[in-house]
Automatic annotation (TrEMBL):
Subcellular location: Cytoplasm
Protein known as: Argininosuccinate synthase
Species in which this protein is naturally found: Aerococcus christensenii
Record: residues binding L-aspartate: T123, N127, D128
Pathway note: Amino-acid biosynthesis; L-arginine biosynthesis; L-arginine from L-ornithine and carbamoyl phosphate: step 2/3
Protein family: Belongs to the argininosuccinate synthase family. Type 1 subfamily.
Gene3D superfamilies named among the record's database cross-references: Argininosuccinate synthetase, chain A, domain 2, HUPs, Single helix bin
Gene Ontology MF: a single term: ATP binding
Keywords: Amino-acid biosynthesis, Arginine biosynthesis, ATP-binding, Cytoplasm, Ligase, Nucleotide-binding
Length: 406
């Protein structure tokens, strides 16, 4: 679509530096177009009334504030948890699986408002531009997408501040404290400034917001018991809670005990490596507990195959392919495996460590009589000789052939 045809734009608005500058830039460069903002409440700690006023002060005609917390948990977080999905074995996908949900809601509002285009404040170096745009195209492949970072002459955060100051755009941050952050009820990420040099140790005492470092955690452990039903957490310490309350409570417990701090150099989809610090206290506890319960309730082949699948699942989510047929097909497999992932897991939290303290399940595959070192009436140890002979038959044939041909 030509610039002159853009009359109304829906902007993903966070209230931060990028999107606040974007409102003024869109109006300046797209024929003084009407800009409507949408802010997704996915659990970040924000004053949404302040964000609403700020969007209007920056030039937006209106701002939608959408409470997506419940949908975020049940339709994005929990499916990923059931899959055991992590990117590169450690990142719990907090930013990655939030973007498809926001994109879906943006298309819905853009259609409602009759918008000609959707805009976002993602940089041309990051992953989120891909996640947003693939999500938008899933629901409207023809709508125009505007990514100012790929168009404007602003080349750095400092230049963004210059632009904001020149256009009297109010900002709640300063140049000196401008870590790039992403927060929702699952995690908080920190990037930029001193973290851009991987040789610098993170200043945990200064940057952590969801909890404390293990050094500052109490010198006393805290036990917690989580009950799962079909792979989803439903209760903590015997109290049934809503999904929002479960994550909030575990975030508090984990944060207080220094759990879930990750310093990661990751491979971005666009090809470069980036370094960030992630806080995921409750999520780290849930992933650990879920994995322990699966150890008890899944048969060997299913458990091993699912572990391999989790890596690919994590890649798909990280790369913005949440709505892909492959991710959805994987989810069907995952959810079938979760039929027996019901039970309770007790963990002990201590100075950044998660210590296993017991698992129970009505679907436990652990048979104490089979596994015991004491005498039993089930397992005949003499049977192992024939098993080893048959299991090792290909090896025997290979070695005999090797010696025969010497």
């Amino acid at each position: 679509m030509m610039k002159e045809n853009v009359k109304k734009v829906l902007l993903a608005y966070s209230g931060g530096l990028d999107t606040s500058v974007t409102i003024a830039w869109l109006k300046e460069n797209y024929n003084n177009c009407e800009v409507i903002g949408m802010t997704a409440n996915i659990g970040q700690i924000e004053d949404f009334d302040f964000i609403h006023k700020k969007a209007l002060n920056c030039g937006a005609s209106k701002l939608y504030v959408e409470d997506l917390r419940e949908e975020f948990i049940t339709d994005f977080i929990y499916p990923s948890l059931r899959a055991g999905a992590k990117y590169e074995g450690s990142y719990l996908l907090g930013t990655a699986f939030a973007r498809p949900l926001i994109a879906k809601k943006m298309v819905e509002i853009a259609h409602k408002e009759g918008c000609d285009a959707i805009a976002h404040g993602c940089t041309g170096k990051g992953n989120d531009q891909v996640r947003f745009e693939l999500g938008i195209r899933e629901f409207d492949p023809s709508i125009t997408i505007i990514a100012p970072w790929r168009e404007w002459d602003i080349l750095s955060r400092d230049q963004e501040f210059d632009y904001a100051e020149a256009h009297n755009i109010p900002l709640p941050i300063t140049r000196e404290t401008n870590y790039s952050k992403d927060e929702n009820l699952w995690h908080l990420s920190h990037e930029g400034l001193d973290l851009e040099n991987p040789s610098n140790q993170p200043k945990y005492e200064e940057i952590l917001e969801l909890g404390v470092s293990p050094k500052q955690a109490p010198d006393k452990s805290k036990k917690v018991t989580i009950r799962f039903e079909k792979g989803n957490p439903v209760a903590i310490d015997g109290e049934e809670l809503s999904p929002i309350d479960i994550i909030a409570k575990l975030n508090k417990l984990g944060g207080e005990n220094g759990i879930g701090i990750l310093d990661l150099v990751e491979n971005r989809l666009v090809g470069m490596k980036s370094r960030g610090v992630y806080e995921t206290p409750g999520g780290t506890i849930l992933y650990h507990a879920h994995e322990k319960l699966e150890q008890l309730t899944l048969d060997r082949d299913t458990q091993h195959y699912k572990q391999n699948l989790a890596l690919k699942y994590g890649d798909l989510v990280y790369n913005g392919l949440w709505f892909s047929p492959l991710r959805q097909a994987m989810q069907a497999f995952v959810d079938y495996t979760q039929k027996t992932v019901t039970g309770e897991v007790t963990l002990e939290l201590y100075k950044g460590n998660i210590i296993d303290a017991g698992i129970t399940s009505p679907f436990s595959l652990y048979n104490e009589e089979l596994a015991t070192f004491d005498e039993d009436n089930i397992y005949n140890q003499n049977d192992a000789e024939g098993f080893i002979n048959l299991f090792g038959l290909p090896q025997t044939a290979r070695v005999l052939a090797k010696h025969k041909n010497k």
